[in-house]
Amino acid sequence: MKKYIIQRIVFMIFTLFTLATLMFFMFRLLPGDPTMTVVSPALNPETQEAMRRQFGLDKPLYEQYIVYLKNTVRLDFGFSFQHSRRVSEMISGRMSNTLVLMLTGLILSYLVGILLGAFIAWKRGGKLEIAVVIISTAFQSAPIFWLGMLALQLLSVKLALFPIGHIVTPGVHRTSSLSMYLSLDFLHHLALPLIVTTLYHTCFPLLTMRSSMLEVFGEDFIELCKMKGLSAKKIMYNHAMRNSLLPIATTIPLIAGWAVAGSVVIETVFSWPGLGLLMVEGVRRNDYPVVQASFLLIAVLTIVGNFITDLLYGLLDPRVVYD
User: Fold this and answer.
1) Cβ 249 vs Cβ 312: under 8 Å
2) Rounded distance, CA 247 to CA 261, Å?
3) What is the value of pTM for the model shown?
């Protein structure tokens, strides 16, 4: 087990190094001059050169790369070209908004998926099972930006039930992030993107739970429970569901990483000021430090999610052996 963990950690470090290197050179190959966002052509040449030195843009590419790697190891992502603020401060302010939306959506989708998946597995073969599987698969198959735009058109524009976007009503100020997150105005803005996120992610835990339950129903201990005269409700909740949760539990960290990575689309559609929208804004303005830090953070969450998933499988299922 220790050997496997060490190997995985080394592999994770190598993967992150490769991703960081690719991101550094990839963004510099994109068309557009990032210095135009911070260095105005109207300034005199001396001032322009001083500003390039301030952001390290006057150095050769290989020197910028070395500085970039050193700063990344120290978790120093530099200053934003566009906002002249520390990237770490910008990300920390946006990351909490992303986590509130995505983690809440994942929790709801797993709760709904587990309960509904177990129920349709118990009532397998009926019209309800077919309808639930078709509807959940349709939501999963549809592009999430299309679902978001459809929800905005129907529920915000046509019916005026929810705000069109943003995180709070313009002009409403809160003394702290906690007071904002607990306000009714924030919950009203959260509702629609949360509904779309939940519907989109429910299919995976639902179908996984259904398949796992169907496998458990064929086990000998289920027949033994029936022979003992236990009620159908007890067999389902106390025995079948408990033994069907292993595949669900091990997918949560992995899906959480994917959800944060997919936050770019949902945040752009709903103008939600999170990490995904910050990354889109950085790409539009060639703001390298912001985009590099955002991509790297999402990569870390995804890779760590995979790592935790592998460890959970071994901890929850003793039959799994690590080589």
Assistant:
1) yes
2) 22
3) 0.80
* 3-state SS class at 237: helix
- What pLDDT digit, counting tens, does each position of 44-99 carry? 677 767 767 776 777 787 888 888 888 888 888 888 877 778 888 888 878 888 88
Q: By the 8 A CB rule, do 84 and 290 touch?
A: no
The residues with which 86 forms a beta bridge, in sequence order, are 79
Of 250, 296, 284, 297, the C-alpha closest to 98 is 297
Distance of CA 141 to the CA centre of its chain: 18
Helix 275-284 to helix 87-122 angle (10° resolution) is: 130
For the domain with range 92-316, which CATH number is right: 3.90.226.10, 3.40.50.300, 3.30.470.20, 1.10.3720.10? 1.10.3720.10
Question: Which residue in 92, 117, 134, 111 sits closest to 194, CA to CA?
Answer: 111
The CA radius of gyration of the chain, in Å to the nearest whole number, is: 24
Residues in contact with 65: Cβ distance below 8 Å, sequence separation at least 6, in sequence order: 21, 24, 25
In angstroms, the CA 287 to CA 305 distance is: 27
Give CATH 1.10.3720.10 domain extents, the chain: 92-316
Contact between 287 and 110 (Cβ < 8 Å)? no
Cβ atoms of 23 and 295 within 8 Å: the answer is yes
- DSSP element (H, E) containing 301: helix 288-316
CB contact at 8 A, 165 and 267: no
Cα-Cα-Cα-Cα dihedral sign, residues 12, 17, 20, 21:
negative
Are 119 and 168 a contacting pair, CB within 8 Å? no
**pLDDT band at 191; cut points 50, 70, 90:** very high
HSE of 149, CA atoms in CB hemisphere, 13 A: 7
